[in-house]
């Protein structure tokens, strides 16, 4: 693989998060639990960074604080921070987050995946790529990748990350970028 | 003065597609509706002849041709052919006779996904556009042969849509580069006669669709910038020049994927906030209008209706029926097509 964009990332501990379980009322056993930012964060925290055998949480690329959820309105906003300002993996990371949430959240949710303001040299361009539904749909339809492999690629451990990349995920993100 | 407010009555929900429906297209006589989408098929819908009230049924499924999403379907003006544009980089031309459909031509050349195909009003030319940033013009030859007459590279990003002016002499394209371009033929070559873009004029994000009014004197565009822009045409120094007439902002909260202008003058929009909105001319209250100072409200548009949750997910396409006033079709990420009847309020 070519030279790493960020050869020495700063690695953080995985935060211990404990969900406070509200006691369920016998009356509304049918009521669905609203989705909150912790739940959405739990879907994305363990996505492996494309370059290193660490998760997006460990690299501070995603944090619980940067996930905003409005369950009633059905909206989710995730801001992510690439480790390096010129990171060419930014689109790929954003796409992985989007795919993971597409598969994990009810279809009624509208997800906005954005770079943290000021975190990237081409912030507007990357944000636009990530929010173009048609480009994303075409990129995900890449015949080189079966649907079954995509979620594995996004959540795989470091050992598999390189293999997944070589399987064409770079083309996948590239077709989103151009 | 002005159109009355009203409501959209849902007539029917057409199910069958197994993936999002990207586009619907009425046949020129309005007897058929074609739909296409992520399941790589086209469905042809017809009225059920006996049914009261009116019901539409799936009359045909066109499959086994495109290997990826079918993004656009467009009928030839004679109604005998249907062109389909696909993410597989090809455009297919289908012919139907006696309920039997077959592919009679495959147009290849685009380097990436084809986003739209549009037949010109006399049926002699086909326009296609793609993520490869180009617009292709194809001439229809005898025997269903298609010859490329021109390839236009003016846009700097994906071209999302192509649409012909009702009189057929102008082709409009709109792009991820935020601009709208108007193409005319000059000495056997197509040239960009005008680009609608820039501060205070053009959209500030991707332009998804463009629609002309029945007379071809106005055009409405919709964008990821959550506005509709209405443009009008004036003759200046012997040339047709388009100007921004009105910007409709503050009505939509998310990307507007589709817009269509009915023969009766109603503008319908389909939005990623799951709503269909209907706009009419001559009311009070759009944001910034360079309305003609005739005082009649011409050039000033008002929202007549907002139908929330028209679909439970994004709406990708809205199309007015060509002859039945007030009949509207919509297509969504919910894999469904819905038929609506515009009901103006009693005045």
Automatic annotation (TrEMBL), chain A:
Domain MIP18 family-like: 39-111
Keyword Transmembrane helix in annotation: no
Coiled coil (UniProt feature): none
Start and end residues of each stretch annotated as Disordered: 1-34
SUPFAM superfamilies: Fe-S cluster assembly (FSCA) domain-like (SSF117916)
Keyword Hydrolase: no
Family matches, as Pfam families: FeS_assembly_P (PF01883)
Record keywords: Chromosome partition
Transmembrane segments: none
GO biological process: chromosome segregation; protein maturation
InterPro entries named among the record's database cross-references: FSCA_dom_sf, MIP18, MIP18-like
Family the entry assigns: Belongs to the MIP18 family.
Name listed for the protein in its UniProt record: MIP18 family-like domain-containing protein
From TrEMBL, chain B:
Keyword hit for Cell wall biogenesis/degradation: no
Keywords, ordered alphabetically: Repeat, WD repeat
Cited InterPro entries: CIAO1/Cia1 (IPR028608), WD40/YVTN_repeat-like_dom_sf (IPR015943), WD40_repeat_CS (IPR019775), WD40_repeat_dom_sf (IPR036322), WD40_rpt (IPR001680)
GO process annotations (BP): iron-sulfur cluster assembly
SMART domains: WD40
GO CC terms, sorted: cytosolic [4Fe-4S] assembly targeting complex
SUPFAM superfamilies: WD40 repeat-like
Statement: the UniProt record of this protein carries the keyword Repeat: yes
WD repeats (start-end): 14-45, 63-95, 107-148, 152-183, 200-232, 308-347
Similarity field: Belongs to the WD repeat CIA1 family.
Entry function: Essential component of the cytosolic iron-sulfur (Fe/S) protein assembly machinery. Required for the maturation of extramitochondrial Fe/S proteins.
Name of protein: Probable cytosolic iron-sulfur protein assembly protein CIAO1 homolog
